[in-house]
Model the fold of this input.
Amino acid sequence: MPKYFLETSAFLKRYKEEAGSNIVNNLFNNRHELFYLNLAIIEIRKVFYRLWKYPLQQDDPITEEEFNALSSRFAEDILQMQRIEFTEEMIGQAITILGKAWVPNIFDLAQLSAYLIAKKEYPDIIFVCSDERSKLIEGVKQFVREGDIIVP
Done:
């Protein structure tokens, strides 16, 4: 069964219809083995709260009902996935990453660290990342072949 690690920007395509959402939805619908870093819960929930209570000028605000529906759907989705807990080993991996690539966002660095540790156990796991503005995609390319990355 194919394995995929979803970093937050890709994971969020599940809840906000945009380019690439169909790719992420297909990963869920086809029952692939999906992985996420536990810290992604904070990032995703933060986006839900931002859209509901603290929308930015470019956001389409959501109602409380929509917030609750997103929260419920997210809770159901993570039950289908494999949770990776952030560990001391990942801190060491982050230091190794910074020696080769600049990943300025701490959550991106944590997710890349988690993916690379998971890749030791699951060599066929694919990194799913859609935040092209960040240095994350450039960073991951320093460690794995391009065929191990999906950009929805």
Q: What stands out?
A: The chain has seven helices and five strands. Residues 108 and 136 are 6 Å apart (CA to CA). The two ends are 20 Å apart (CA to CA).
